[in-house]
Specification:
The protein is α/β, with parallel strands linked by helices. The chain is 34% helix and 14% strand.
Length: 648
């Protein structure tokens, strides 16, 4: 422990004086059932796993829990958790000079060897700076030498790491289950070395990106001219890390001290997606598809119930009804738990692959409603975004759900897709009213339709990374139409704040210069930007102006096909040529079928073989393979061999 560090006993003593003066003090005390507290003095390497939002949200983050187990399974390492304090406690902490601390042992975060931030979305950026500052650490990477913890970050937002390049020492590109241990081991061997030497060793790890080892030059018009490595350890392109076989599910969930946003235990049944929706960032960056065998999922459910007492299990994936073994899994859950009161949540159901048989099986579990995401409501828009869900299928699904006794259906749409008109938005209204009408025919006034509408944000590494985002005027006009017409008994509309969508847009496709904007906005008081009442868009615009940058340059500008993107040196294992071809197809209204039916050579197979050894890669199969409806649905009898649909 450093000479100037506050002792954990002193932190706890000060906390006792102030916790009763803040909302939900249970957020800040730790000691949850199943939490792991190791002997601090007997452990060689210490990792703080940080989620840059409040406990209520961070405790529902599966990624944090997986890494928590991975690290604590090492006899010479420990992992402890830290979340962003809400503004009431932060004020008290600054007044009382209490540093940001871990929940397990109340050690200052400054005393750890490694801090790992989870960045699933862009609205968390200012919270990272705030947490570093609360820890008594410089927020800029260049101002932290090896006497400070190494600060890394991973998550979906890190596939364009450039806006946060000034603050993070190294980014995990891709999946973190294996790489977190490699980084920690490397840091152990490099203890005592300079920060530069430590980072040179980190840069040699497949999937690690060290921003300071790259120089970025710009054209006079503000676009990127070049991104050039300045260290021999830095590759020209950082290839994402892929875990070939999903590790066994995490089952010893910490039972929260307070209600969290999701009071249930998640199991990831499948990672990746082959549908090829052009707007979907997750669908592009999480390729290839890997599916868990049914016995493994069932074993995990049993362990979760025994370890935690949770009564709801959420089966996670990007497209749960595309999981090859979904029927066998639901059958197995029903057979074992139908009298237990277990609630089964199967989110991300696709209308076109959700059969009446599956709905009947899910009817044996407690469930409030069904959620589907058509995203668009005209054939023209569906062809542009490559998500074909005809109205007739939506209505058939609605009849199937309502007729089985469910009262509520949730439909999610996007506005702002490329080439969208008000007629396309009007079609959303028409389809929603038609769905509700089907429910009213079957169950009368008990039928409810919740409609969620978000504004499309073009994301890096997708076919739509070239397109402009809708302006405020365009979005406001479309929302006005929806607000006026989606009203009445049984209809409930929710939509995104326009300014917040704009914020997400300029962060999602931002370059390294946005680091200055983020820093200035944070200094002016910006934090918790994902919260409606905490996002101060006027301050962000002021921060842009101070640095002579325009938000519209990042949001409302169409990109040339040949433009160098700020993230072009980050390799998501999908060829840029594939994305270009798909973008040009969208302009012509041409579609691609599911990659399970036909391979389009997106690049994932050769990139995987480049990353993994020939022995590891040999069991992976490459499409074309038979469609899901024709594939064998027998569960893999617990065999741990890779079960992968690979697109290449």
């Amino acid at each position: 422990m450093g000479n100037d560090a506050m002792h954990p006993n002193d932190i706890q003593r000060k906390l006792k004086r102030i916790l009763l003066n803040v909302a939900k003090p249970g957020r800040y005390v730790g000691g949850e059932f199943n939490s792991i507290r190791k002997d601090w003095d007997g452990i060689d390497l210490k990792v703080a796993l940080a989620f840059p939002d409040i406990y209520d949200l961070g405790m529902s983050n599966l990624g944090i829990m997986i890494l928590y187990q991975q690290i604590n399974d090492q006899s010479d390492m420990l992992a402890e958790r830290v979340f962003a304090p809400w503004v009431d406690l932060e004020e008290q902490m600054r007044h009382q000079a209490i540093p940001l601390y871990s929940l397990e042992t109340h050690h200052s975060i400054r005393e750890f060897d490694l801090i790992g931030f989870s960045l699933p979305y862009e609205q968390l950026y200012t919270n990272v700076l705030n947490m570093l500052d609360l820890s008594g650490m410089p927020v800029r990477s260049q101002d932290r030498d090896s006497s400070y913890p190494l600060v890394i970050a991973g998550g979906h937002a890190c596939f364009n790491p450039e806006p946060m390049a000034d603050f993070i020492d190294a980014f995990v590109i891709g999946e973190g289950e294996e790489i977190i241990i490699e980084v920690a081991r490397t840091l152990q061997t490099m203890r005592g070395a300079s920060r530069t030497e430590q980072l040179r060793a980190i840069a040699r790890i497949q999937g690690m990106y060290v921003p300071r080892f790259y120089d970025v030059d710009y054209h006079p018009d503000g676009t990127v001219a070049s991104i050039t490595p300045n260290m021999p350890e830095a590759p020209n392109r950082v290839l994402k890390r892929i875990v070939p076989v999903l590790p066994k599910p995490f089952t010893k969930f910490l039972v929260p001290n307070i209600d969290t946003v999701h009071n249930r235990a998640p199991i990831e049944i499948m990672r990746g997606c082959t549908r090829g929706c052009r707007f979907c960032h997750a669908g592009m960056i999480t390729r290839p598809v890997r599916e868990r065998p049914v016995p493994e999922v069932m074993e995990a459910i049993g362990e979760i119930i025994a370890n935690t007492g949770f009564e709801e299990i959420s089966l996670l994936s990007l497209s749960s009804s595309d999981y090859v073994y979904v029927h066998e899994l639901v059958d197995a859950v029903h057979a074992q738990y139908h009298d237990s009161g277990l609630s089964l949540s199967l989110p991300s159901l696709r209308i076109e692959s959700t059969s009446a048989d599956l709905l009947d099986k899910l009817g044996d579990t407690r469930r409030a409603g069904f959620t589907f995401a058509p995203e668009a409501a005209t054939e023209r828009m569906r062809d542009i975004i490559n998500k074909s869900v005809p109205d007739v299928q939506v209505l058939e699904a609605a009849r199937a759900v309502y007729s089985r006794g469910w009262r509520t259906i949730k439909l999610y749409f996007m506005i702002g897709h490329p080439e969208e008109t008000l007629d396309d938005v009007q079609a959303i209204v028409n389809l929603c009213k038609a769905v509700l009408k089907e429910g009213q025919k079957l169950i009368g006034g008990k039928a409810n339709l919740n409609v969620g509408v978000s504004t499309f944000i073009p994301k890096a590494h997708t076919p739509f990374q070239w397109v402009p985002q809708d302006t405020h005027v365009q979005v406001r006009e479309k929302l006005h139409l929806l607000q006026n017409q989606l009203r009445g008994q049984g209809l409930h509309l929710r939509y995104n704040n326009i300014a917040e969508s704009d914020f997400e847009g300029f962060m999602a496709r931002g370059d390294r210069r946005l680091g200055r904007v983020i820093h200035t906005a944070w200094q002016m008081g910006c934090k918790f930007d994902a919260w409606n009442d905490m996002h101060h868009h006027d301050l962000w615009l002021q921060a842009f102006a101070e640095h002579d940058l325009s938000p519209a340059f990042y949001t409302h500008r169409e990109r040339a096909i040949g433009e160098v993107f700020p993230w072009d040196h980050i390799d998501a294992a999908v060829h840029k040529k594939f994305l270009i071809d798909d973008y040009l197809m969208s302009i012509k209204g041409e579609t691609r079928v599911d990659c399970r039916d036909q391979c389009f050579a997106c690049g994932i197979l050769p990139k995987f073989k480049q990353e993994r050894s020939e022995t590891e890669a040999m069991d992976w199969e490459c499409p074309p393979v038979k469609p899901i409806s024709e594939r064998k649905r027998a569960a893999n009898a617990g065999d741990r061999q890779p079960n992968v649909t690979l697109v290449g």
